[in-house]
Amino acid sequence: MSMRSILVKQFGGIENLIIGTAPKPTPKNNEILVQVKSFALNRADILQRMGRYPPPPGDSDILGLEMSGVVVEADKQDKRFKIGDKVFGLVGGGAYGEFCTIASNQAFHMPSHLTFESASAIPEAWLTAFQALHPLANFKSGNTVLIHAAASGVGTALIQLCKVDGATKIIGTVGSDEKAKFIEKLGASHSVNYKTNENFLDVINDVTSKKGVNNVFDYVGAKYWNQNLKSLSMDGVMIIQGFLSGSHIKDTAADITPILGKRLTIKGSTLRNRDNDYKADLVAQFSKRYLSLFESGELKPIVDKVFNVTEIKEAHEYLEANKNMGKVVVKGFSD
Fold first, then answer.
1. Confidence check: pLDDT of 227 > 60
2. CB 3.0 to 4.6 Å from 120: which of 32, 38, 80, 188, for a disulfide?
3. Rounded to whole angstroms, how far apart are CA atoms 104 and 71?
């Protein structure tokens, strides 16, 4: 059987995104089949469309890492989900299809107050943020943090998680005054518009009395290398989650002295290529610690804009232009 799906005609620009048909996936043991009602965009989708980020072996080559929908085929061994249940979850690929399989231990029951659109904005962004915060960054209540790309999906999740977990100072870098006001309303204590102030280190020194922040969460990469190291406190931890400005540090004055002098820890973080057991454990930990806070409204998935599936090119273009404050979401074929 076939299904409708967003396909990539050939690697490259948004003009290569087309609506076509693909084989309807068949769930394996410990998987459920979901009729996709909504999916959210990630920068990994853009990289995969351009041929720079292939899916892990065994995962669907259809784009899409997070979705929400309705169970149409349940796992006979795992009784947590039944046909008709509303779910959302993390997948290695395939969310842009009309149907998608997902490991049952990586799916969440959808809280009743959430829409499909808001639920689809949770899995990849919030699990990526949670993984960076706990355990990679060894975050503790009372820490001060610097979050780059703070108005992004992961950035908005990090701000909220840091706030509920007791961060004393949350500094975010953004690309406009509008985004600066947005993240401060969300919970950031300070914002830096890098378009008008490239030297965020001055703000860090002022806010922390030159002690530096305990944690840096970086999506920018090469351009911020020196400032990031100087921004960290003694025994600080930096989590590198992307490199929007490039992966090669071209500045010949790049200085690694702070790594030794301040006993810094620098870690890279990805989620898509983690094994299923790791992801299942991450989902279980996140659910236990935070899912009730979504139900109470203390944590909120931030959806910037919702597109129809026929507007997939416009959705990719919108995300690539960095216009979003929060997640970009697309309604599924079945909606």
1. yes
2. 38
3. 10
- Dump strand ranges (E) for 30-113: 31-40, 66-73, 86-90, 99-103, 107-109
Query: What type of residue sits at position 2?
Result: S
Assign 3-state DSSP to the chain and report helix, strand, coil percentages, each to 5.
Answer: 35, 25, 40
The whole-angstrom separation of Cα 25 and Cα 27 is: 6
Whether 160 and 299 have beta carbons less than 8 Å apart is answered as yes
pTM, entire model? 0.92
Lowest mean pLDDT among 198-202, 245-249, 259-263: 245-249
| CA atoms within 13 A of residue 308's CA, in its CB half-sphere | 3
- Do residues 107 and 85 touch, judged by C-beta distance below 8 A? no
- Ordered DSSP codes for 215-275: EEEESS-GGGHHHHHHHEEEEEEEEE---TT-SS---TT---HHHHHTT-EEEE--STTS-
What is the C-alpha radius of gyration for the chain, rounded to an integer number of angstroms? 20
For residue 88, which amino acid is it? F
Within 10 angstroms of residue 300's Cβ, the number of other Cβ atoms is 17
Beta bridge partners of 3: 22
What was the pLDDT predicted at 221?
A: 79
Contacts of 66 (CB under 8 A, 6+ apart): 39, 40, 42, 88, 89, 90, 91, 95, 120, 121, 122, 123, 124, 125
Residue 7 in tokens: 């396909």
The pLDDT assigned to 246 comes to 62
Residue 173 backbone phi and psi in degrees, to 5: -100, 140
Question: Who's near 30: CB < 8 A, 6+ residues apart?
Answer: 75, 77, 78, 103, 104, 105
What CA–CA distances, in Å, run from 327 to 17, 23, 120, 151, 262? 20, 28, 9, 9, 35
Question: What separation in angstroms does the CA of 2 have from each of 20, 70, 99, 186, 248?
Answer: 10, 18, 10, 42, 43
Q: How far apart are CA 122 and CA 282, in angstroms?
A: 14
Encoded tokens for 33:
């089949």
On whether the CB atoms of residues 137 and 130 are closer than 8 A, the answer is: no
* Range with the poorest average pLDDT among 47-51, 55-59, 160-164, 185-189: 55-59
